[in-house]
Amino acid sequence: MKKVFLSLFTIILFVQTAFSQINIDTAAVVKNNRQLYSIVVSQNDKVIFSQYYNGKSAADLYNNQSLTKSVMSLLIGIAIDKGYISSVDEKLFKFFPELAKDTDKRKQQITIRQVMNQASGLWHEDLTRMDKYFALSNPYEYVLQQPLVSEPGKVFHYNNAATHILSVLLTKATGQATLQFANKYLFGPLGINDVDWGKMKDGYYDGCGLLSVQLHTAGMNKLSTLLLHNGNYKGKNIVSAKWVDQLLHPIIFYNTPWGFEGSTYALCFYHFNYKGNPITYGLGWGGQFTFIIPSKKAVITTNESINDATAIRASILFLNRVFPMIYNGLN
Prior knowledge:
CATH topology: Beta-lactamase
Helix content: 25-40%
Oligomer: single chain
Number of helices: 12
Radius of gyration: 21 Å
Strand content: 15-25%
CATH architecture: 3-Layer(aba) Sandwich
Low-confidence stretches: 1-20
Structural class: alpha+beta
Order of helices and strands: HHEEEHHHHHHHEEHEEHEEEEEEH
Number of domains: 1
């Protein structure tokens, strides 16, 4: 009986220790942070930290902004796995035959990879005049019709307007609306049933994050764990190991001016070496983050306010102050 008691005590102590490695709530940068809504950390397939702030809760859906791009990346990979799309190097022209009428034949050579890499050369919205883009009745057609702003594949230029085309392409390729496809092959199998996803005026679900896919923070964390397990969830293959490998180790990438200083970008994800450990992460305006850390078998996901006045400051604060505390608390 004594041995049993000691064994139970050891297990309880281990669990308490594992779950108490991360204790950041007393830190002023967290306690006094009015922009912070949620932090969920999982490691070794267990949630080891889950806290909500400023009146938010686990039941809330959060505006993920450009984390929507990372969700789209998983969906494109699934569509490739299932044969709806031949590869990431397939040309847009196959799905948008109207490009044949364009006098600039370079548009016929733009690939899905180039769109996902923010290097398509397609027209991009003026971030200071987003109202103009939102007012377009058919935004994806408008983007395809405008003159190229750079040679496809040559210049990295963050482009929400072009990334939205991924959602249109997915629907054209599969014959299913983006949310329908996601529910069937991604959200549903992961048990993610509470989703709100906005549509653009062209009738297609937003593919870039301007209207966003809204999820629970824990749901985004769960999606991200697919990259730790070669696309598997509880023994079920959701997305192929081949696609996950491309996301974690892209062969074509571009330097990006935001996120961790020195980050690169490819296929709708960012990459950075933190203390010698490779990190793949998604980033959305205002401090929406999901970090995949293979060496720690961990995922860190956070949602924050999208207030334009504080958005950049909130992101920098999380990267420079909060993330290091969480990272250092991981085993």
